């Protein structure tokens, strides 16, 4: 059963839903529509495909706690294999290496069951602090 992607407003805006999230990885899906197409009618914009892959890999790397993201993207690479033409985009991710600070993941992205892209991502763990204005990431200032 699908559920919202915790408190990630951008993912929610696109309609990304979590299908499965466990120690083996994450599966997320997105129902496509014309607002997500590029200038070629019927082709899902590559940025949408990449966003779905990044969301699935990030959730696999460090699942949110109490709806708060626990990692940030350090590096992300995607190879588009075929245009994403269809109604349902699905990203299935898994952790390849879990280090103390960095986590390497990959994802396979399909559209209506056809493989359209593969992705590789590196994520850094973060410990968000709760402030009066909401959740903030640690300062990056060097002292």
Show the helix and strand layout.
Layout: E1 3-4, H1 9-14, E2 17-22, E3 25-31, H2 46-61, E4 71-80, E5 88-98, E6 102-111, E7 114-125, E8 129-131, E9 134-136
Overview of the structural elements:
The chain has two helices and nine strands; from the N terminus they run βαββαββββββ. The protein has a single domain (3-128), classed as Hotdog Thioesterase (Thiol Ester Dehydrase, Chain A). The protein has a seven-stranded antiparallel beta sheet with strand order 1-2-3-5-6-7-4. With 143 residues, it is of the alpha+beta class. It comes from Paenibacillus alvei TS-15.
Structure at a glance:
With about 140 residues, the chain is an alpha+beta fold. Helices cover about 15% and strands about 45% of the residues.
CATH class: Alpha Beta
End-to-end Cα distance:
47 Å
| Uncertain residue ranges | 1-5, 131-143
- Percentage of residues assigned to helices: 10-25%
- Structural class call reads alpha+beta
Query: Compute the gyration radius: what is it?
Result: 15 Å
How would you name the CATH homologous superfamily?
A: Hotdog Thioesterase
The mean pLDDT is 83
CATH fold-level label: Thiol Ester Dehydrase, Chain A
- Overall geometry comes to globular
